Here is the input.
Amino acid sequence: MSPIRPMTGLSLALVLAISGCSRGEEVRAPEPVPAADRMLPPQDMDISSETLKAVRARGVLNCGVNLGLVGFAFPDNRGNWQGFDVDFCRATAAAVLGSPNAVRFVPLSAEARFDALKTGRVDVLWRNTSWTMSRDAKGDLSFAGINYYDGQGFMVRRSLNLASAVELNGARVCVQRGSTTELNVEDYFRARSIEFKPVIVETEEAARQAYSREECDAVTADISALAAARSTLPSPQQHVILPDVISKEPLGPVVRRGDDQWTAVIRWTLNALILAEELGVTKANVAKLAGEGAEPRVSRLLGVEGEFGPSLGLSRTWARDAIAAGGNYGEIFERNLGNQSTLDLARGLNAQWNAQPSGLIYALPIR
Here is the structure.
């Protein structure tokens, strides 16, 4: 992982903004996109998805996001939502409604996120959520794919001079309640017969604040979340993320089980953005490539050939619109998490399968 850049004045503003949204208040919905301005398929198309019908009728996508996590989902100093997951919300709105602005961001805590989805308060969770067997097997949720491969780690003060998490014997560890993080840290220390004192808090932001106040010796979370937390501390260089990775955390979008067409819409929107990077389709060149004789895989992706969008209940230009919203997967990653961002995270496992070095990001074929 590359070093985190020092916090700027903008970063300070982001911290204040994040704190302000931590109560879980919904952002005011944008004006619905007029039907005449939406790039929709013919009205007589057979749409089985109740969620897709509701989103179309509403003219706005209700997208569940994190309460405030730098790099993934947070309001900037103007109140505009930014981040990796936020860009996937906008791409989904563009694919479904023809506009990346037709989205209402609903910030949700870890404990509230699934109830918000089940009760219809949100249409999709694009919120750092781990795909696990227990969540998948309950029968009321469906994971539509993986957009980020993460793992749980620990952050400590550099002054402690620790080289590994196994040296945290007797330490106070801040951890978020109601998350896989809480379960993983218990497993890790129990398996090694290491005593620790959990300091359990309600949210990721509360864990960061408790660590900042020195109420714990270490904080544990997904490594991406630790990098985000470190970037907001007054002296990031005084804190170190230990090399131990104690879990696999495949993060991805979640929808309600039983709405197969809507699950497919989310799955293929994600895959379209991944495939766009593999094929060299970017925000800057997507319109040009759609207007010329591109190679067959690009033509299918952009709706020049085939009826792939209508097979989902979407327009033929669904993927083109999603890419134009914020770029392909690589552009979204670099802008929010990578070398164009404050976090400056390496692609690592989130590199394309055919990159050098290779990662785990692999798009399903559109054909």
Observations:
- Residues 260-279 form the longest helix (20 residues).
- The chain has 14 helices and 14 strands.
- The longest strand covers residues 61-66.
- The radius of gyration is 21 Å.
